[in-house]
Specification:
about 325 residues; mainly alpha; membrane; two-stranded antiparallel ribbon; 12 helices
Length: about 325
C-alpha cells in the first residue's frame, strides 16, 4: 500500500478547492456516529467514576479498532482490485483527514455575520465550532473566539493529520482524526464526561504533543514569509504557550497571537461556568476583519508548508 507524494498533493488540492461539501460521504462523520452509538450503550448504568473511566476507555479502544480495521481492509481490497483504485482510496482518506478549507469556511461564516452587524447570527454560527457559551459574547469576544479556534485547529485540522500521514500513512491520519473526534465529543471536564471522556482527552493530549509544537514553528515561518512579526510570534510562544491548561493548545495560539499582535484568552463561560483563561499575547491591535484575514493567510501558508514537508520526506 504505497502512498506517493502525488497522492498527498492531489489530496491537498482537493481539500483546498473542494473542501468538505455538506452531504458528501465523510469518514469523520461516520466515526462521530460510531462514537455516539457506543456512548449510548456504554454510558447507561455506569454511575461510579472508576466504572465510567473504564467504559470510556473501552469506547476509545473499540472506535480505534473498528476505524483501523475498516481502513486497512478497504485499502487492501482496493489495491488488490486495482493499483489505481488503491491510490484513489488513499487520496480520499488523506483528503478527508485534512480540513484547511473547511476551517476557513466555518470561521468565515461567523465573521461575515459580524460584518453585517448580526451579532446573534455570529454567536449561533460560532456555537457550531466552539464549546464555550457563545450567547454571552460581545463582538470582540466573538472575533477573539474565531482567532482562538482557527489557531488551535491549524494544528488539529491541518498539521497533525499530515504528521500522522507521514508516521502511519492514510490509516495513521484517519486514526488521528478518530482520536480528535472522540475528544471533541466526549473529552470535556463537565459532570457527564469528566470520567467517561478522560481516556479520550488524555489520548488526544498525547497524540497532539508533537504536532502542536511543529505547528508553532510553521506559524513562525509563515509569519516571516507574510511580513508579520515572526520574532514576536516566537517570543510569545516561549513566554505564553505553557500558561494554558491544555499541554498543546497554547502553542499555535501563542504563535498566532504574537504574529498578529493581538491578545487571546481572558474571561469565558463554559457550560454555564465562568473560566478565567490565561492571557496570551499583547493587545497591540483590536481583533477585527484585518486580523482575521491575516490569520487565514497564516492558515493556508502553514497548510502548504505541511504538505510540502510531507511530500518532500516521502519522495526519498
Amino acid at each position: 500500500m504505497f502512498v506517493s507524494p502525488l497522492d498527498v498533493l492531489m489530496a491537498f488540492l482537493l481539500d483546498l478547492f473542494v473542501g468538505d461539501p455538506q452531504g458528501w460521504p465523510h469518514p469523520v462523520r461516520w466515526i462521530g456516529g460510531l462514537v455516539g452509538k457506543l456512548e449510548r450503550v456504554l454510558y447507561v448504568g455506569a454511575k461510579e467514576g472508576s466504572l465510567l473511566v473504564t467504559r470510556g476507555a473501552l469506547l476509545v479502544a473499540m472506535v480505534l479498532t473498528i476505524t483501523a480495521t475498516c481502513a486497512v481492509l478497504g485499502l487492501l481490497l482496493a489495491y488488490r482490485l486495482s493499483e489505481w483504485l488503491g491510490h484513489a482510496l488513499s487520496v480520499w482518506l488523506i483528503y478527508t483527514s485534512v480540513a484547511t478549507r473547511s476551517l476557513h469556511v466555518e470561521t468565515a461564516r461567523v465573521v461575515e455575520r459580524v460584518n453585517k452587524g448580526n451579532l446573534e447570527g455570529a454567536r449561533k454560527e460560532l456555537s457550531w465550532i466552539v464549546s464555550r457559551d457563545t450567547d454571552v459574547l460581545d463582538e470582540q469576544g466573538v472575533m477573539k473566539s474565531v482567532i482562538e479556534t482557527l489557531s488551535e485547529n491549524i494544528s488539529d485540522g491541518v498539521v497533525a493529520p499530515f504528521f500522522y500521514l507521514l508516521v502511519g500513512g492514510p490509516v495513521g491520519a484517519l486514526l488521528y482524526k478518530a482520536v480528535n473526534t472522540m475528544d471533541s465529543m466526549i473529552g470535556y471536564k463537565n459532570d457527564r464526561y469528566l470520567h467517561f471522556g478522560r481516556c479520550a482527552a488524555r489520548l488526544d493530549d498525547l497524540v497532539n504533543y508533537v504536532p502542536a509544537r511543529l505547528t508553532a514553528g510553521f506559524i513562525v515561518i509563515s509569519a516571516w514569509f507574510l511580513g508579520l512579526d515572526a520574532g514576536r510570534a516566537l517570543r510569545t510562544v516561549f513566554r505564553d504557550a505553557r500558561k494554558v491548561a491544555s499541554p498543546n493548545a497554547g502553542y499555535p495560539q501563542a504563535a498566532v497571537a504574537g504574529a498578529l499582535g493581538v491578545q487571546l484568552g481572558g474571561r469565558l463561560s463554559y457550560f454555564g461556568r465562568i473560566v478565567n483563561k490565561p492571557l496570551i499575547g499583547e493587545p497591540l491591535r483590536t481583533v477585527g476583519c484585518e486580523v482575521y484575514r491575516e490569520s487565514v493567510k497564516i492558515l493556508y501558508l502553514v497548510a502548504v508548508c505541511s504538505c510540502a514537508f510531507v511530500a518532500f520526506i516521502m519522495s526519498f
